[in-house]
Structures are given as structure tokens and as C-alpha cells.
Amino acid sequence: xxxxxxxxxxxxxxxxxxxxxxxxxxxxxxxxxxxxxxxxxxxxxxxxxxxxxxxxxxxxxxxxxxxxxxxxxxxxxxxxxxxxxxxxxxxxxxxxxxxxx
Length: 101
Description:
With about 100 residues, this protein is α+β, with helices and mostly antiparallel strands. The protein contains 3 helices and 4 strands; from the N terminus they run αβαβαββ. Helix 2 (about 35-45) links the parallel strand 1 (about 20-25) and strand 2 (about 50-55). The longest helix is centred in the middle third of the chain and has 15 residues, at about 60-70. The two termini are about 20 Å apart.
């Protein structure tokens, strides 16, 4: 089940993600099962992740980012150009404490 964030939580997470480097990058092969597995592992460890998405067409990038968030059960916090920020709370070790709605 995807994560639903309030406006205040989204603002908080955007601030947290500002200094992060992109940990993953989607190349020409697109979204593969191996990429989704890697994204799951990174989200479980970090909770908040920047992903770079290759592609010239804006609609194709948007579709890829939406599919990525759906498959990872993550919330799309922010999308700027080729970079998307995804958030999913860890099942084992929660590190980020979200503000109340």
C-alpha cells in the first residue's frame, strides 16, 4: 500500500532530501525487476532516496517515475527535472520521524 503524505510532511521531506545525492539511476533499459529490488533495499535502509531518470521526453520520465513509486509502494515527495525523491518508511528501523498532519 503506497504511503500518503500530508502537505506538511511533504514539505519536511523535501527539506530533508535537499542535500542528498542521487543513489540510483535508471538508464536506457528502464525499470527492471533488478532495479526494483535494489530500490526496495535502498528504501528499506535510507527511507528517503533520490533517483535520477534518463529520458528526453518529459511525459516518459513522468510515467517512469509514477511506475517506480507504484512498484516500490513509495510516495513521490518531489520531482525536479530528471530527479525524483521517493519516501517509504522502513519496516525494521524507522529513522525519519514525520511531523503530524
